[in-house]
Amino acid sequence: MLPLTDPSFARAARRLRYLFTDLDDTLTTQGKIPPEAFSAVWRLREAGIGVAIVSGRPAGWADHLARMWPVEGVIGENGAFYFRMRQGKLFKRYFHEPRRSQAVFEKIVADVAREVPGAKVSADQKYREFDLAIDFCEDVPPLPRADVLRIVEIFERHGARARVSSIHVNGWLEDFTKLTGCRMFTEEQLGLEMDELLPVAMFSGDSPNDEDLFHAFHASCAMANIADFADLLKRPPAFVTQRRGGQGFAEMAEAILAARNQ
Q: What predicted TM-score, i.e. pTM, was given to this entire model?
């Protein structure tokens, strides 16, 4: 991973029209959005760079983010849907029928409770429409890596996809990912094919569930806290910030804007 001072970052920044970004521990630090990170989203927008959030967070959060934040849209629950404001109204696009997985999820929850007793169903589960989120460090004491991997194994045992974020293990049965959600949003809302988007876009994230996007985007940037998951990351991003979380996002935004002003 290269530092933001590498000349190739400035070249990518000067071409930039869109920034797709994760939320937790990318825009946030210890669960809060630092003022410099939220200000950075506005500054990018004012510079003509559209920001889209790509998160594992639930539909209930996506509704708020799409309505209230200065973003192009929100791709939520790891690619299950996107929400976007259009002409003052919230447009919702789902790729599958919600809640077809409840019986399987109940079995997964029971297995997790038995095999990984320190883990809990995430506090935001009631606002989810597609996936199941198991908390391993947000509202519970942080679990060791072996327990996190055991949760992944339980999901996969039941035929579910599983992805590790900085706070949860998310699982679902349908055929979607953050990357497929980005593709659908790009084609349907931005009017671009992915091969047209990638030369003028960047992705920023912080954890293994961002790995597909780190690999797909020509320009990708991780916050410094990606080091926490170095042992799980097979395809790292192109660039990395010096600072963690929301402060790292602000650092990245500042480097983007500085390059465009040269």
A: 0.94
Tens of pLDDT along 80-129? 999 999 999 999 999 987 766 789 999 999 999 999 999 999 999 999 99
Residue ranges covered by each domain of the chain: 2-95+176-260, 102-172
Q: What is the DSSP letter of 99?
A: S
- Residue tagged 């935004």 (tokens): 253
- Fold match between 2-95+176-260 and 102-172? no
Per CATH, domain 2-95+176-260 is 3.40.50.1000: yes
Residue 22 neighbours by CB under 8 Å, 6+ apart: 53, 54, 55, 204, 205, 206, 207, 210
Mean pLDDT of 230-246: 95
Residues 183, 42: Cα–Cα separation, whole Å: 24
CATH code of 102-172, in short, is: 3.90.1070.10
